[in-house]
Design a protein that fits this description.
heterodimer, A: mainly alpha, 76% helix, 0% strand, B: 310 residues, seven-stranded mixed β-sheet, four-stranded antiparallel β-sheet, 31% strand, globular
Chain lengths: 265, 310
Amino acid sequence: MSWTLLRGTFTQRRTSILWYSVSLIAYSWLMTWFYPQIGGGQYADLIENMPPEMLALFGGTEVDFATLGGYFQTEYLGLMWMLITASALIIFAGKAFSGEIGAGTMEFVLAQPISRVRFAITRVVALLLYIVVLAAVSFVPIALFGPTYDIELGAETFWTLSAFGALFMLAVGGFALLVSSLFRDSGRAGAITAGVMGTFWIADLVSNVSEAAEVIDPINIVTYWQPGKIINGDAVAPEAWWIYGVLGVVSLVASVVVFRRRDVA
Amino acid sequence: MDVITTRGLTKFYGKARGVESLSMSVPAGSVYGFLGPNGAGKTTTIRCLLGMLKPTAGEAEVLGEHVSLDGAALRRRIGYVAGEVNLYERQTGRWHLDYVAGFRGGRGGLEADLLERFDFDPGRKVKELSKGNKQKLALILGMAHDPELLILDEPTSGLDPLNQEAVYAVIDERVAAGRTVFLSSHVLSEVERVCSRVGIIRSGRLAAEEDVRSLLAKRLRDLTVTFARPVEPALLDDVTGVDSVMVLGETQLTARIKGDAIDAVIKRLASVEISDLRISHASLEDVFLEFYRHTDADDAPRAVAGGGEA
């Protein structure tokens, strides 16, 4: 790994990292603060008035909306959090390989005495650190501000949520990095990753109301993301850990292998 | 000893040819001019030499090491200035100098000297720099650590004449200190000024390789003469090496002059009264068209020494 490249990566991405971090802290705090306003019984009343099909679309079959987990899944972690973190990771990963090649700066960096493997591994480490940051700014505010608003996550729930959230981001970020290593234009790489994620999300929604769409569920990383169940104290299905872990690790390793062999100018 | 050797180096981008069957060698301690019109394959060759592109066929050796895609140790001994300068727009020149120093384990010994000679302010962000100042920064970044081999892809692009001369002076000094310079260019005057030997690439193939003196003998000049009074249109007809003569009105004449014929032309013009005279060097592309127009049909590159036509 190259400390110079690692420092350089975070220096170049500092504005983006700062904005995403501040946004996630603010959003997490906002949703925590908002829970007493509509949470509990009021939220259950609101949900009862919704058509069952709409409830199903938003994962009503997986988690009880009237619970704390249901609130966080529906209002924040089940969609908006996914959108925010996925976009952050897609941008970060896109810049890691294809962005540098497209901008021509890869030629400048690789004219220096740094091997491609070292370059790629440093970018993987940078992505992993970014995931840790995103997980921290997402879940620490909920645990930190929660008691003020009658929300008690508990240590085990907090750590499970953080670890599973980080693993979900590893799967998304790893895939984004792999796509980035294949192309020379970060816009195209980002569009492909976003397209795949969008397709998964739509497939997950449709599978809530259509059995035909359930065939994709075993490989759909969006389907496995059930933060509401974790907050409610349920265990995460072992296959979910495996799917995220294997997809993340395989993608990261593949991105290093691809980058090592490709044209970079 | 040769610092650069390529054997059948070939790079295709899909079906598009970048460079094909390029075999050449660059001796140590020389300034080797790598010439060719835009799109000829110069940059592709350089990127293959630096391990940024994977050759479709053939191989290259640089500083005695086989070029691979992962040659970090080799690149420690090379300084590279890209033809198109792409740096981090939001970072300063100082940040770039620190960045390179981080990769190379310390500041380049020539950094302070180059900053002064190019009169470059490293405190400004790249996005605030003019094209010429970006080029200066790229030159400083590429040359500061005094590499054994300098690979310069059109290094004076965007520089004013004063800074161009500063670049040439640095090149002269580095070569005097035993370094080797591989210089890609399509500017004939630049090649004349600094190079000792040239390889000429056209349509992805090495069209010729020769020393600069023989290239100079092939130099083309465009002549425009305005006479004080009407002269014979056939004034230059019997001068060997004069081509494309055009008479404009009764008092103006244009012609293309090859190589050493300029002396005979000037002596002939001395016999008439002239009110204006303009002589410009033809572009390198015109030289190619004039002297290498038939090489596309040949499979084998030509190695010509001593001024014979290729």
